[in-house]
Design brief:
3 helical TM bundles of succinate and fumarate reductases; about 0% strand; extended; oxidoreductase; transmembrane; heme
Length: about 130
């Protein structure tokens, strides 16, 4: 059998992942991102405890454009992971296994992520 006659499986360019699959993958990715962000937080706290010169360096890094972009991404990851974790708690209680409820809770978790991130940044920049 030649390789040209073999059937092709759906590829990621053709197949569209459902929202629930994207949410599951994103939950895992944000968990890793939060772990990386904890190292940054630990560095910032150690710099604060080390003295004004070290703290000024840490503040300059986090105050830069890339630092603020990192903090924004970390904030989004935090609130997404929190919201999706609450979905998991609801599933543990037996609620939300039906497809319409699962999609509704996914959309609520995404909305909560946006709202909580915006509120946190408004309060933080004030």
């Amino acid at each position: 059998m030649s390789t040209r006659n073999r059937p092709l499986s759906p590829h990621l360019d053709v197949y569209r992942l459902p929202l629930l699959a994207i949410m599951s993958i994103s939950h895992r990715i944000t968990g890793v991102g939060l772990a990386i962000g904890m190292f940054a937080l630990a560095w910032w706290l150690c710099a604060a405890a080390s003295g004004p010169a070290e703290f000024a360096v840490a503040q300059a890094v986090f105050g830069s454009f890339l630092g603020k972009l990192f903090l924004f991404g970390w904030t989004v990851a935090l609130f997404f992971h929190l919201s999706h974790g609450i979905r998991h708690l609801l599933w543990d209680s037996g609620w939300g296994f039906e497809i319409p409820q699962a999609y509704l809770s996914a959309k609520v978790a995404l909305g909560a992520t946006v709202v909580l991130t915006v509120i946190a940044w408004i309060i933080g920049l004030a």
